[in-house]
Write a structure and sequence with these properties.
The structure is a homodimer of 429-residue chains. Chain A is α/β, with parallel strands linked by helices and 429 residues long. Chain A is built from 16 helices and 17 strands. A seven-stranded parallel sheet of chain A has the order 10-9-11-8-7-12-13, with helices on both faces. The longest helix of chain A is centred in the first third of the chain and has 17 residues. At the A-B interface, helix 2, helix 11, helix 15, strand 13 and strand 16 of A face helix 2, helix 11, helix 15, strand 13 and strand 16 of B.
């Protein structure tokens, strides 16, 4: 059975899934949490097999940790499921209600997008997270997990699938793809799949973006900057930089490049170097920066590198204008911050930096759906269309226009016999 | 000089254009209107050359009309420019203002997308319309017009370009591409162009969609349906259908397929046939429909044809469920209507039809930005991401998140020392 065949079948039930009630969808999420808790030994057993195979294949350390599905991960995903069930329903919200003319009423109503393809590397908890976001939002999802956790994924998928059926949702609103070859087939289904969400390394996301015509929500690179202005509170800047670099260095919103105003360099660089050295961060910089401080090495500082590690690039600039030019040229339009007490410099930075997040006097690590108060996070988008920056459930929604009349024809308006009055209505009308 | 080189230069001035004031942008629109009026003889002269060449090439009738730029078109575009200048500024709107914690404030602010590529066939007035929408919204635009009106386009572009410079906007915020070969180059610039808007025939839009990785806003097909339920007001249904088919048959929102409830067919079809015959509409239908009425021929009724002409397909269905299945299978997700006095059938139709517009008891021809009260229309999208259905200036906007703190670090929240309070602020705060 080909993926195309299965997804075509899924496409046919999109309207059924779209019109499932919020109760049904939330019930499915609660049943998912129950099933995962009830069958946890089955999951842990399958995960043990996966880990054994991975270790035999020489996989170690951090990657093994990401493949692991243990009590801690179980607790996190089941708590996530229950809090997702409690979030307000994103489906059927009336975003606009307008009387076009007597008896002719327009409403813009939020509805699910349809079929979402989700491709993720490694982490089996990602399957639960994304599948549940799709169910909450009334979407159908094709799930392709990493082969390293094939056994774990199979068990988890079976439990999730059982839960949606038990809640009375169409059985094939979730489909699992298991073969690696099916990724390329999935990428070619632009007539059936409305949106792709890849979760994994930057190289992986880049591959997906480069090999499909389906819209992709995600970010391939996270080259975030902090610019330290001559009017910065230097101690604050040091604290924020250490947080942005070390609080979780492997995250896409960790800072990779520091730009320091030449006017501040002599005073600021020694403080910075001492704090970064203490935090075990390696500094690479331009010759000019290195000449001012022996702690900085000049090799490998190309300003296009996303280290995802305890390393940072350092360059000097002449004020906020040069900083903005640098960021717009070398950055990835993710999240960039200015440290300054100067309102004018801050306003220029916010206006001119072409990124999803433009920050002042705080850590780039705040770029995250949970920290923005979105409750659930679909991902972070560096694209500019549909959704930008951290994306909550809204990113899985589209809308349709409902127009209700009483035999209204356009001819009457073209002839001038009738005319539009365009009155926005509030919810009470 | 290659298009890539020019568009790369344009990309560099995106932040400058983004931060131009509303006054400057509106002034550019008013100067455009002035220049077009002042230099109208120059435009008409160039258009005369284009028309002469077109006639020599054997182009006739409706197409010649679309190539023509005369006093009537001039009046329409200059009035359009002035009313666009009067519309509220879409840039810099605060869509969300949220206190995440004491002193840490998040704002979601609307901003231009960046570089828009516009490719249009024939109509020289389209260049004015789209260029002005891009300027109003603070975007940069690459404009590629049809070669049939190359001389007219060149003059119009020079006038528009002069107006933006005079208003103090960056000179290269509008670029013209003139060679047909440049279309394919433009389609390949996915690293520089954020959005493509094609204007022209369905085949043309389909070609653009199939040959680029850049997001495309538009619709390749407009196969709109009207379903006449057994509980329809039959006289109303006839009036609406005649309007939807004949008020402007070449439009994408004209109806192409009529589905009639079998329970209503015997009573309704004769009334329908008589009205359509009087309106010079040819009817094609299934054998079953044809057997009930001699006016319907069975050839060529495949339900996937967008006639864009005085022809309509007719089929019979068993109630609203079968109608919805038919529409979701054969339609183009543009605009579909139900004629019924039955609230339950209407609700089912609105919920289950997966189209940008789901209408009740009114003509599909209302699917239009001006008729929705959007003031200016970017186009109609049958895609589901970013914008769906008729798209106003909002479709040319994205947003960025501004986060302002006082040295806030994520580590303090991870450690539990601080916690978020998530309070939405109103505009007065």
């Amino acid at each position: 059975m080909s993926i195309r065949h299965d997804v075509a079948g899924m496409k046919a039930i999109v309207p059924v899934m779209m019109s499932a009630s919020a109760d049904q969808r939330n019930r499915a999420l609660r049943l998912m949490a129950e099933a995962l808790n009830r069958e946890k030994d089955w999951i842990f057993g399958a995960n043990g097999e996966d880990l054994k195979r991975a270790e035999e294949a020489g996989i170690t350390g951090a990657v093994i940790k990401r493949l692991t599905f243990d009590e801690g991960k179980l607790k996190a995903v089941t708590e996530g499921l229950l809090s997702l069930a409690d979030l307000p329903d994103p489906v059927g919200r009336v975003r606009l209600r307008r009387s076009l003319d007597e008896g002719l009423t327009l409403r813009q109503i939020s509805c699910p997008i349809g079929v979402i393809g989700v491709i993720f590397e490694a982490r089996p908890d990602a399957m639960v997270q994304i599948a549940s976001l799709c169910v909450k939002s009334g979407n159908c999802a094709v799930l392709k997990g990493g082969r390293e956790t094939a056994a774990t994924n199979r068990v988890i998928f079976e439990l999730l699938s059982g839960a949606v059926s038990e809640a009375g949702l169409p059985e094939n609103c979730l489909i699992q793809a298991e073969l690696h070859s099916e990724i390329d087939e999935l990428l070619s289904l632009e007539d059936l799949v409305d949106l792709l969400i890849p979760r994994g390394s930057n190289a992986f996301v880049r591959y997906i973006m480069d090999h499909t015509k389906i819209p992709v929500m995600g970010h391939a690179d996270g080259i975030c900057h902090i610019y330290v202005d001559k009017d910065a509170d230097e101690d604050m800047a040091v604290r924020v930089i250490v947080d942005a670099k070390t609080q979780y260095a492997a995250a896409c919103n960790a800072v990779e490049t520091l730009l320091v105003d030449r006017a501040a360099a002599a005073s600021f660089l020694p403080k910075l170097a001492s704090a970064l050295t203490e935090a075990h961060v390696a500094m690479r910089g331009t010759k000019e920066a290195a000449a001012m401080l022996p702690g900085i090495i000049t090799e490998g500082a190309d300003f296009r590198t996303e280290y995802l590690d305890y390393t940072v690039s350092i360059g000097l600039v002449d004020g906020v204008r040069e900083a903005v030019d640098h960021i717009n040229t070398y950055g990835s339009h993710h999240t960039d911050a200015i440290m300054t007490e100067n309102d004018e410099a801050a306003a220029y930075f916010a206006r001119m930096v072409d990124s999803a997040g433009v920050y002042r006097n705080c850590s780039t690590r705040f770029a995250d759906g949970f920290r923005y108060g979105f409750g659930a996070e679909v991902g972070i988008s560096t694209g500019k269309l549909h959704a930008r920056g951290p994306v909550g459930l809204e990113g899985l929604m589209t809308y349709k226009y409902e127009l209700t009349g009483h035999g209204h024809t356009v001819g009457d308006y073209a002839s001038g016999e009738r005319s539009f009055h365009f009155r926005d209505l509030n919810d009470d009308v």
